[in-house]
Automatic annotation (TrEMBL), chains A, B:
The keyword Oxidoreductase applies. It comes from the Bacteria. It comes from Catalinimonas alkaloidigena. GO terms for molecular function: oxidoreductase activity. It holds the Pfam family Ldh_2. Belongs to the LDH2/MDH2 oxidoreductase family. InterPro entries: Mal/L-sulf/L-lact_DH-like_ah, Mal/L-sulf/L-lact_DH-like_NADP, Mal/L-sulfo/L-lacto_DH-like_sf, Malate/L-lactate_DH-like. Keywords: Oxidoreductase. This is Malate/lactate/ureidoglycolate dehydrogenase, LDH2 family.
Length: 355, 355
């Protein structure tokens, strides 16, 4: 068990050792750790050594020159110069927020970036400004579009954060697949079968083998199969890919570079790095903020108090499970799985940092 | 069998008989008929008598004063004054397009409107301007959020239209439920069971009874159940509801008024009418349009040529089935189901119009 602060400081020091400037290292550690705090263990310190290996392979630039390469009053494109997505993402979201302040909304597409942690963190940056925040990113291809047996899309998450008044904010953060890859990794560790509708084998048949993707299969778009709307999950993943990469000039579809250093990026790239897309809309660009928040409170209370089939269950508001995790882990600390613990120890040894 | 032009003119005359100004009647007929042309029969002339009955019940205003009630350079709110969504929607989308021309993007939330036909038509208005278009709307509550047995959301569709170069555009238009209500109506007419994951009965148990919703059950969010990601479909439907109604001041959640005249709108409304949300983003507000379109072409060709499990099937690009329907029906005409044919005959008799 480690405290949040202990893991945050460790990560910050690792980023410093990679040569990140101090403000970048602190920001990257904060974004990375927000995943552990919010219970999305697959996207937190468990990935720290992955960033290090990509940096060692020359595929992450620790001192990027992050630039706005094109803009209008409400839109912009940022070139991340191969930097950590954990740093490039927040800069791009800040630009969206600034534009929203100026003209009501701001929309920023990003190229030449890297894994940006959890999408929810970025979207939530808008909340403190009474803005609605949005964040999406493309990712290494693991997902087969409906009918296909090739992997052409990433799990391409969408996050939307909406402020409320007395109620906590609405924070949706979802992969556009039936199940996120992290959920599958849990089943792999336990050796348990995956539910039907999560993945297919390399011939395109439904499989419950949690190793199915590693064996040449694919994750399935939200919906699972055509009859259950997988073409809609495919549409959503495609929109994320296009907004993040075709708008910005990043790699899209099968050209998105893998997050792991042992796989080479595809030859003949169609763009630079991976892509993200951020949005911010000032609530009072539509109606007075207090009025909006009062109605959001009513929306939330209405949904939360809906009758349920099982009286021990409640209808959740998007963000509820993550808030509960954050409450518990801020107080009690963060328990790491043994392989993650070992991974961090090795990183500590390499850089001479105590965990 | 009727030609497109025959049905369009008939609908236009019905709207004129309702007292719509000529430009509104022509526009409403065009938007309505785009559904029949594109093969979404549930949203076309089959609904014409429904609009008439709502007008007779005093719930549609044929001569609305459609007003921009609030705006910033990139956002706006429109009050539809109880007009046809088929007219209010296009006016709002035009405002989004105009703002996009000025400052790169435009986002318009609409209150006090009514059913706006197919979301795809509205999103596609952006294409001719080399813009990405978006349209969404809330709708009468038929959908239970994950775990709930109450109907709190509509099928709340999302449409995204993205221009390409030599390839046809990408046009996604999807209900945020596993299956749209129109698909269920087809099974009801045929007396066939619905697939598991489409709906639940009034106790919240999975059912295949296509009359399940009429018997107090509910449609299920995209995903079907928690294990298959229904909380994500619920998130998407919720975002549509909030963007369309909480931002604008329309009714949301269980307060959205029903489209049918024989059901009264809920007492104590929380807003006015139903809500929509529209967006437009100029492609060249991000990168040169020709460059974007060239990459969209490559995206489309890559996905369309992906290997499939069944060699007789191809990976579809969103919009393909509707384009195929439009091609066939423009040439061969539109076949109406007998009850729809009868419905239109009765409308014709009422207003003295020949079908």
């Amino acid at each position: 068990m480690h405290s949040y602060e202990q893991l945050r400081r460790f990560s910050e020091q690792v980023f410093l050792q990679m040569g990140c400037p101090p403000d970048h290292a602190a920001l990257a550690a904060e974004v990375l750790l927000s995943a552990d705090l919010r219970g999305i263990d697959s996207h937190g310190v468990a990935r720290l050594s992955g960033y290090v290996r990509l940096w060692e392979a020359g595929r992450i630039n620790a001192t990027p020159n992050i630039q706005v390469v094109h803009e209008t009053p409400s839109t912009g494109v940022i070139d991340g110069d191969g930097g950590l997505g954990l740093v490039v993402g927040p800069k791009a979201m800040q630009l969206a927020i600034e534009k929203s302040r100026q003209v009501g909304s701001g929309w920023v597409s990003v190229r030449h970036s890297n894994h940006f942690g959890i999408a929810g963190w970025h979207a939530m940056q808008a909340l403190q400004h009474d803005m609605i925040g949005m964040a999406m990113t493309n990712a290494s291809p693991l997902v087969a579009p409906t009918f296909a047996i090739e992997r052409l899309l990433g799990t391409n998450p969408i996050a939307v954060a909406i402020p409320a008044g007395e109620q906590p904010p609405f924070v949706a953060d979802m992969a556009t697949t039936t199940a996120a890859n992290g959920k599958l990794e849990i089943l792999q560790r336990k050796g348990e079968p995956a539910p039907v509708g999560w993945l297919q084998d390399k011939e395109g048949h439904s499989t419950t083998d949690p190793q199915g993707v590693a064996k040449g299969g694919a994750l399935l778009p939200l919906g699972g199969d055509r009859e259950h709307g997988s073409h809609k999950g495919y549409c959503l993943g495609a929109v994320v890919d296009i907004f993040s990469a075709v708008l910005s000039g990043a790699n899209y579809g099968p050209w998105v570079p893998p997050f792991v250093s042992f796989l080479s990026p595809p030859a003949n790239p169609v763009g630079q790095g991976i892509g993200h897309f951020f949005g911010a809309m000032r609530v009072d660009a539509f109606r007075p903020a207090e009025e909006f928040k009062r109605h959001m409170d009513q929306w939330i209370v209405t949904f939360r108090s809906a009758k349920t089939a099982d009286p021990t269950q409640r209808v959740l508001i998007p963000g509820d499970p993550e808030r509960e995790s954050e409450r518990i882990r801020s107080e009690q600390g963060i328990e790491l799985l043994p392989p993650v613990e070992k991974d961090l120890q090795q990183l500590g040894d390499k850089f001479g940092i105590n965990l």
